[in-house]
Amino acid sequence: MKLKLSSKLNDIQISEIRQIVNLAKKDTINLGIGQLPFDPPAALIEAGIKSFQSGQLKYSPNAGLPELRELIALEHQSQTGKPTTFENVIITVGVESALYITFATFLDPDDEVLIPEIYFSVYDTIPKMLGAKVKTFKLNTDFSIDFQDLKKKITKKTKLIVINSPCNPTGKIVSLAEQQSLADLVAHHPLLHLISDEVYAELYFTPQKPVSLAKFSDQVIVLNGISKRASATGLRIGWIIAAKPITQELVKIQQYSVTCAAITSQKAAMPVLRGECDQDTARYREVLAEHRALALTLLADIPKIKVVAPEGAFYCFVDISAYGKSKEIAYRILADKNVLTIPGIAFGKKGDRYLRISFAADLTAIKQGLKALKAFFVTE
């Protein structure tokens, strides 16, 4: 079949993550998983069932149900101390949709977006599809921000800077000092905005919950959702929190791309935002902390690899550069040991010295998988 497709797709490929995941077998030990293995909270399930049973299957407003948006606004206000109403919130079809809507609202061809040099692939792909230019800023060896490099990368064409905390894939949480520095930086550029992807904010291993970047600056667009905190990736509920003049423009892209998020999913999300599922999320954190400790202990027993302990999310970003490049290593591990890991090249060129290993798996899988990894590396 001959096709004449948009030139936007010329340099767009299926992500490295999807390519290797598609090769996994039924019996593969999956340490590449990007979602929680737990059942969703009972309150969430009950709210979704009730929505179906009562026939609530109509459209919602383009921006989402006002009552859900108000709950999100109240949570955000309690965390940042800044007045927030439902008019500051748009419900999206997951955080990737939130990213697309935000990028499409702000970016013209040849505008610039700054993203960290190790990044979730959609931060790079979506702006390029829109004709914008993506530049990366450096990270330090502990994955903190190299502010000297970041400042040098800002030009008159820079519209957005993307921050992800806790980070996929590194597990790094942007410190309070870094957040204040980001706020100070954009204060000198009134037309520049920070996109703060906070979807992993409820999954942390630090004594205190991560603070939203919006607490430090009004030039912040917050993206979040229930996929991680409620183990409900399939509901596809995310949201954007921004100043009203911004949300009034964002909703135009929402209307002409997806119309609205599914109303049953919005109803199912409401108990999460009412706090009815907080104990479930706390339990997820406790189990993940146990899995994290096991993974770090077993990884420490593998010679010549390095790991910066993750502060949030559920990944270890493991430096395997002593053995080779990430893609070759990941595919050989899958072929030789039947263990799925994610090559770090999936997160940018600077990630090529790493493998992403998820500890959102059961303890048996973590033990067997990392034992197999040790056997693989010891024979190298």
Largest sheet: 7 strands, mixed
Q: Please report the distance between the alpha carbons of the first and last residues.
A: 45 Å
* Contiguous uncertain segments of 5+ residues: none
SSE arrangement, N to C = HEHHEHEHEHEHEEEHHHEEHEEEH
Binned, the helix content reads 25-40%
- Count of individual beta strands: 13
Based on CA atoms alone, the radius of gyration comes out at: 21 Å
Q: Any idea of the CATH topology of the largest domain?
A: Aspartate Aminotransferase, domain 2
User: What is the residue-averaged pLDDT?
Assistant: 96
CATH architectural designation of the largest domain: 3-Layer(aba) Sandwich
**What count of helical segments does DSSP give?**
12
Strand content: 5-15%
For the record, the CATH class of the largest domain is Alpha Beta
What is the general shape?
globular
Can you tell me the CATH superfamily of the largest domain?
A: Type I PLP-dependent aspartate aminotransferase-like (Major domain)
Q: What number of structural domains do the residues give?
A: 2
The largest beta-sheet arranges its strands as 2-8-7-6-5-3-4
Structural class: alpha/beta
